[in-house]
Fold this sequence. Notes:
By secondary structure, the chain is α+β, with helices and mostly antiparallel strands. The protein has a domain at 42-53 and 77-256. The protein has three helices and 19 strands.
Amino acid sequence: MAAEPPRGAAALPAGRTALLVAALGLHGCGEHQLLDVGPAPPDMSELVARFAEPTADFDQASAEAVLQHYGALARRVVEVDLVAQLSRALELAAREAEARQSTGVRALGAEPSGPRSPTLEPARFEATGSVDVERLCDGWGPAPAPELGNGRLVGHLRFTERGLEPTVWASAEACRFLVEGVRIQLGDAAGEHDSVRLWLGHGAGFAGAFARPLLFDVALTTEVAGVEAALRLGFRVDPSDDTLTFAIDLPGEPPRGAVLVSARPSGPLRVAARNGSFECSASTRQCTSDTAAGFTF
């Protein structure tokens, strides 16, 4: 029987852990000279194309395997709390980018509510730059203790006077934290470059950039309760309603293409396929559609 989507899939809890900006780099152009804006972002065009539209038909024969696969993937995302771990750190980076774009200053410090106060110094800035943000992880102790010994997440974004560039990327260095008492570690001690890539899409402004649908491409070593496993997957999150979407290949040889399967927490499973849109229930084992014939699986 296909698994129901797990409760809390892709939820974005606010303020669960402390954030620390450890390094903010700004590069700009003055007197029409373009200065260094850091490394080029990774290419996400293949994954963007994969999520653009479904390439396979959805039918009774494939329904159970597809929906079970969705449930397994969603549980992996939820159990390592990946979206929540990254989201606020990157939102902070976006706010810093906006501040630098509008005021032309450079900062190194913490959030206004944090233990450190920003130190501002003049910078010549007109059009383009980059921001690096470090989040120290909470550790496995009974109380959150953000410190370097607990590992870190390091995010990178680039911006222009029009807003953020489409791709944000991050690395994880043995980032340790607890999720409902379970010990989680993301990445190894050396760090995995470009281990998490995030597509904002074109035209992302500074305000609300991370409130729009976000496409993640994850390649991480993870440890859950002492068990190490590779996490290699792509998914889309819509923070407006916590919808979590995966592009799932239909089983068979030769390859049959992929459908887009999504769900909100505790909601029905929705499948976008080449032959129409479906709403499926694991409990009743039925899929209905306004554009195609429904079926029981």
